[in-house]
Specification:
The protein is mainly alpha-helical. It is 64% helix and 8% strand. The radius of gyration is 20 Å and the shape is elongated. The N and C termini lie far apart (54 Å).
Amino acid sequence: MGSLALGALDIKDYATGSWGVVMDSRWFLILADLLLALHMLLVVFVILGLVATLMGHCLKWRWVRNFWFRLSHLIVIGIVVLQSWLGVLCPLTVWEMTLREKAGDAAYDGSFIQHWLQSILYYSAPDWVFILVYSVFGALVLASWFWVRPTF
């Protein structure tokens, strides 16, 4: 990745993707930020999904019993728990870090949640703490399936 001067046009920071397409490094950062936003939305969905389910049960909200909402919620937290047990980083985290590296930006170590908790809340914990938290939260989501039964 060098610099190529074409008259008044100076082409810098370009990388070749796997299909031979030349991309400006800014696009890698934009894609990484989009993945970060998607990842954050999934985290919010998992956390607020359980809160909404439990509140909705008390407040008689019918939509919290929607089968597809509940199934997708259970699947997402199930994937998170399984990944933590297997010691596998979330693919969204891996893809984001790869894109940031391609752009020449600094990538972070560890999982998405660990990184952002440490960055935002200055909280750091060993891996087993996150595995325990994910597992307990996943168990609560699974239990909510029986407390607030979904309708078909």
